[in-house]
Amino acid sequence: MKARLFHLWSVLCTLVLLVSLSVFLGFILYRGAPTISIALFFGDASPIDAVLGRELSGTVFGRPALEHFQS
To answer: What's the predicted TM-score (pTM) here?
Structure first.
């Protein structure tokens, strides 16, 4: 009898944990998904140019960006 109760308690705890985590992750995704956009990752650069490394203009740490790659 005690073993069966322990088994049921373990299953219940597991289900409560899974439901709690699902609700938490669902809330995070529901509230955070609208803020994710391409501009968040690439800024003003064209995504394909940024991924391929074609656009290296501007400054990095106060110096021109291309100086870091000419060592």
So the answer is: 0.52
